Structure formats: C-alpha cells, structure tokens
Amino acid sequence: MNPVPRLFLATVSEIKEAWWMYALAAFITLFILAGSLFFARNAYVQSKKLGMSKELVKKAVVSSVSFSVLPSVGIFIGVITMSGMLGIPLPWIRLSVVGALHYELLAASVAAEGITLAAMTTENLVTIAFVMTLSILWGGLFAIFFLKKYQTKVISKATGTGNKGFGKFLFDAVFIGMISAYVGDAVAKIVKYETRLVIDGAYALDGTGNYIWEDHKTFVPLIVLLSSMVAMAFFDWLIRKKQVKWLENFSLALSMIFGMIVAVVLGIGGIY
Amino acid sequence: MARERTYVDNLHRTGRIFMILGFSIMISVPVTMWAVTGVAPDTEMFFPAFLTLSLLYLPGGIIEVITYSPMLGTSATYLAFITGNLSNLKIPCAMNARELCKTTIGSPENEVVATLAVSASTITTTLVMTFGVIMLIPLTPLLELPVLQPAFNWVVSALFGALGYKYFRNNPKLIAVPLVFMIAFGLLAPGFLVGNLAIAIVIGALVSTIAAKILFDKHVLDKEAS
Fold this sequence. Notes:
The complex is a heterodimer.
Chain A: H1 4-16, H2 19-49, H3 54-86, H4 89-96, H5 101-111, H6 122-134, H7 138-159, H8 167-191, E1 194-196, E2 198-199, E3 202-203, E4 213-215, H9 220-241, H10 251-268
Antiparallel strand pairs in A: 1-4, 2-3
Chain B: H1 7-37, H2 43-72, H3 74-83, H4 86-101, H5 108-134, H6 136-143, H7 149-153, H8 155-170, H9 172-188, H10 190-195, H11 197-217
Helix pairs in contact in B: 1-3, 2-3, 3-5, 4-5, 4-8, 9-11
C-alpha cells in the first residue's frame, strides 16, 4: 500500500494549524487594526474642522462598540464552526477580511465539493484558500474602480438640493426596505426554513453528490425580533420620558441581549 | 489643466490605497500557503469553483456597493468592503450611529460619523476574534453550550428588531408598504427569501424607495420626521 496519502494527511493538518498560518492571521489583524485607527483618526481630525462636538464623536464610537460586541461573538462562533475542516487561522483570516460566514461556508463547500475531512490533501487546502480569497473580491474591486464615479454622478444628485428634498427620505427608505427584508426573513422561517447540513465546518453531501437539506421551520427568530423591538421601545421610553441619557449608547445592545435571552429561554422550554 | 485635489478626492485616494493593500495581503495568504508547502492549487478544482462563486458574487458585490455605499459614505465604504460582514453588522452599525448623532446622509458630518462607526465596529470585531482565538480552549466549550446556541443563532434577528423599532418610529409613513410586501413575500415564497436574503434586501429596498417616492410626490411625507 502506498504510504504517501497518510503522509499528506499528517501534513495537511499540520499546515492548517501551522505557526506561520497564525503569524499571517496576526499580521492581517494588525493591518486591519492599524487601518481602522488611521481612518478613525482622519475622521476625528475632520470632526474638529467641521466644529463637531466631542460628545457627538464619543457617541458615535461608544454606541458602535457596544453595538458590535454581540454580533462579533457570533462571527467568532463562525470561526469555530469552520475550524473543523479548515483549522483556526484560515477561517480567522477569512472572517477578518471581506468575509461573512454564509459566504465563506458556501465558498469552502463549493471549492471542497466531494472532499471529506479525512480525505483532504494539502493541494485541496491550498485550492480552497485560493477559491475563498479570490471569489469574494468583486465588490471591493468594483468599489476601487467605480465608487468615486458612482458617488459623483448618482449619490450627490440624489442627496443634493436638485432632487427637491427627496434625498433625505431616500436612504431611510432603502434602510427600512432592508429591515423589512429581515422581518420577511423571520416570517418566512415560520413556514419553511431549510438549511444545508454542516459537518466538519462545511456543507455535507449525500451519496449522489447533492447537499443534504433539513427543514427547521421555527417562529423563534420572529419572537426574538419582536422581543428586542419591545425592549427597544421600553429603553427608548426611559431615555425620552425618564431622561436616562446614559442608556442611549447601550439601548441597542441591551435590547439585543433581551432578544437573545428570550431565544435561550424558548430553547430551554424545548422551542428552537 | 490639473485641478486641485479636494477633501473627497483624498478620501477616495486613501480608501483605494488601503483597499489595494488589503487585497494584496489577502491574496498573500493562499500564495504563502503555496510557497511554504510547495503545493500548487489544483486548477481543475479551482476554476469551476471560482467561476461558480463569481457568478454569484460578481453581481452581488456590485449590488452591495450600489446599495450600501450611500449609507456609509466614502471612507467607511472602503473600510467596510475590506473588513466584510456588511449587512449583518457594518450597515446597521453605521445607521445606528447616524440616528443617534442625527446626521444627514451625504453630509460631511455623516461621513465622519459613519467612518467612526465602521472603524469602531471593525476594531471591536477584530479584538473579539483575537481574544477568542487566544482563549480558544476555555471558550470553545462555553460558546458551544447547547443552551446558548439559540442566542447566537438569532443575534441578527435581535439586531434588526431593536434597530427596526427606531427607524419605524421615526418614519411611520415609510414602513407600511415595504413591511407588508416583505411579510407577504416571506409567506408566499419562504424558501426563496431565506435562501436569497441578499436579493430580498435589494427587492425590499427598491419597493420601499418607490413607495417613498410616491408618498413624497403626493406630499404625504411633508411633515414626516427624518
């Protein structure tokens, strides 16, 4: 029997967790941190030029940090989900730059179609890394080449006075459309919620090479959505009527925690 | 004749440089894996997968830039398109900050607020992930506790519920049409909506914008709080 595949297997699991993969991830983390700080500093300098108050700047930063903690824990759980197949550093990198879990799971699965964890070779891993990286660059490439033109030709006109004042409603309307889509998504899951089975951090395939689908229809997301909406209404009442001003920066995070606690309580009661 | 570079020109220049650097570093990861292992990617496996995914992500990426960049402004768009997690984190985060700071989209003040919001959000995510990796061994069993799974499964629903209240309260006349439309959409085509949320967001945004324009033209929005 040829011993090479066994050697390959040992090698691929070593590569997935190699020190230089962690070093790459750490380097990318530093790049993202440095870039974010650079943009934040420029924005802060500009805020002074525009005569914006320090309180306003603080409000933008503190509310965004408190808002982002919980979804970030959710994103980190995505790293754990994918680590079964790809180790920790590669999902860490992919979810730090451009990635989002649903993109990455799909990319890993399409690239690794038919490959199981036990049969994965170094060549497979390198190919998966290339596919996951290169397939997702399109939006950014479009921004590099066309964002400036798009802003000058379209957005400035939409928000400018030439549009007789509709501009101020336009983007609220766009965002309300986006929120409505998430409400529709929560409603849809009551009727049908088919998910692809994930094994070892990638979508699993059946014997005929098709994805394995499972229906988990549930009304939990709608209850969670409505619960955090009610919690937000309560906090908003405290802020506006009872003048509890410190809550302003944390009301969203606390409302999310309330919605998540409702989900946990429902889960304890056997409702998923 | 060469014209003087404006502040906005500088934002684009810095954003593009940051983005090109970011992409170079991203691409260096698989290239380093290739260089260190000496194993090249399998082209027969790479091209079909790359083309399949590009069919999805090329139009998806363009639509994302068109839909989200007005809400983010210039710098925050470049930063958000490098760091990802747009619809589930960066966009709602920037819109929340805008709502709190009462800035108008397209204004110089909103450019500052959105950039600060996306920077702060990115730094938070990066620190949470780094902390998570460092503390992986004690944290993994905790985060994988079955009792906590529903909380993180539905974190995005919780996020849009809380943020939805604020936007719905401030714009009551803008809600009805997109909300009824998307609920009906969810009931009539649940599989499509759940499986194609990115497309559903664009449809929701279009329906909402058209409805708002009709209401605006009929002067229904004249007294609406922005």
